[in-house]
Structures are given as C-alpha cells and as structure tokens.
Amino acid sequence: MPRSPRLFPLLLLLLPPLAAGLGTRGAGGRRPECGPCSPERCPAPGRCAAPGIAARDECGCCARCLGPEGARCGGRAGTRCGPGLVCASRAAGTAPEGTGLCVCAQRGAVCGSDGRSYPSVCALRLRAQHAPRAHPGHLHKARDGPCEFAPVVVLPPRSVHNVTGTQAHLSCKVRAVPAPVITWRKVTQSPEGTQVLEDLPGDHVNIAVQVQGGPSDHEARAWILIHPLRKEDEGVYQCHSANVVGEAQSHGTVTVTDLSKYQAPRFPAPGDHL
C-alpha cells in the first residue's frame, strides 16, 4: 500500500527535536555548551571554605567549591550553595549577582546528639562530616530546637551602697533553655538563726521588680529597684532562676547609710527667742 505524501512534511518537523534529543543522550547528559572535558584547562583549585562539600562545576569537569551556610551566592559567577542550602536574596525579588546568601532550606535551630545546639540542621551535618567518627551516625539531630540546659548566671548582681531617701538598683542576667522563671528574694535570719527567703516585692510599696527577655537568644534579665531607700532595706538580695532542667542563684548586698544620724545640729539664730 503506498504511503500518503502528507506524512513526509510531518516527519521532517519531528526529525530536528529527535536529533537534538539523541545528541544530548550521546553526550552522556552533558550540557551542549560544555563541550569536551579537558581537566588540564581547569583553573587551579583554591582552598574551599568548607572542604567537606566540594563538588564539580555545572559541566561535571572542573573541581569547584560549594558555598557553606552564610556564603555569598547568586548570578552566573556567584558561588553555588552546598547540599541542603538554597540561595536566598537579601532583597525582594530575584537575587542580583553576588547579593544572595546561602541559607539552610530547613530553618530553625536543632539539638545535636552531642548535646550542642546548632543554628540549623545544615550546620549539624557539616560538623558531622569533620568530627571524628566513633561509629556511623555518631552525630545526628536529637530534636528540633536548641538543646535544653539549666540556668547559668551570666551577669550577677553587684553590691550597692547608698543613703536613705535615694534609691538602690540591682540586676542580673541569666541564660537557659527553656526560658527560666526569675524571682528576687531578700535573705534574712529568723530569731532561731535559720535562713529565711522573702519573695519580693511582697508588701514592700517601695520595691519594684521587672523581668525581660534578651537581648541575646535564650537570655533573660531581671531588675529590682528600691525607692525611696530606707535603713531597713539593707541586706542581701538573691536573684533566683529556675526551669525544668535546674536552677541557679546569685546574690548582691545593699548597704544603707541613715542620714538622720549624721545631720548637723541646728544652732539658734540671733533673732530666735530662747
């Protein structure tokens, strides 16, 4: 049966795409613009910031460094980000050349099996590649979020000395995960000689307490203000912090000088009647 002449134009239209596809497969999946690989023409490899994630270029020929987390990226000449990282622009829209940053595709801090907190799972994986290998899977993600730890006093309260009628100010800074509960207490002695902790402010109308998170992650600061200062406010003040893991405390001393005992005597004026 003779073939219809209408099929020839259709075959001619299909031949170029088929030929291009066959040519790509014959090149082993390489890009047409790459050409044959000539390792001797590759630039001398530099020292990679993260040697554990070195790779080949887009043509699969020359050695090239991949950007670690935080490296600049973007554009044809920009660094390619390592595995698990994406090039994110610091501006809206498409990142101009060299203005992006390699960030982990999975955001958020993680807790490693070594008990250390990592800013991302990508940082944990990179650390695992360079850490000594005790056994396969020696370092892995234990859970999402930073590792929990008991409160640590970063900045203890400093002892102060002032006179009656003025003010006294104490502060302390604590680091902990999860966030700690911070309270102020005054340390006194009972008539029997045992230590007594009085929660503040309590009934003291001249005492104010404030707690605020920050300025750094997993930190909290607490203040106590005594105004006006009285002689009976003298003593030891405790900054106590606690969370589900543990607790910590630090102390500061307030010393008060009573001005009423040091007021100069008033002599009668010449016009005063005796």
UniProtKB/TrEMBL annotation:
Residues 151-257 form the Ig-like domain. Keywords: Disulfide bond, Immunoglobulin domain, Secreted, Signal. Residues 30-105 form the IGFBP N-terminal domain. SUPFAM superfamilies: Growth factor receptor domain, Immunoglobulin, Kazal-type serine protease inhibitors. It is found in: Secreted. The keyword Transmembrane helix does not apply. InterPro entries: Growth_fac_rcpt_cys_sf (IPR009030), Ig-like_dom (IPR007110), Ig-like_dom_sf (IPR036179), Ig-like_fold (IPR013783), Ig_sub (IPR003599), Ig_sub2 (IPR003598), IGFBP-like (IPR000867), IGFBP_rP_mac25 (IPR011390). PROSITE patterns: IG_LIKE, IGFBP_N_2, KAZAL_2. Residues 110-149 form the Kazal-like domain. Pfam families: Ig_3 (PF13927), IGFBP (PF00219), Kazal_2 (PF07648). Residues 1-21 form the signal peptide. It comes from the Eukaryota. Its main location: secreted. This is Insulin-like growth factor-binding protein-like 1 isoform X1. The gene is IGFBPL1.
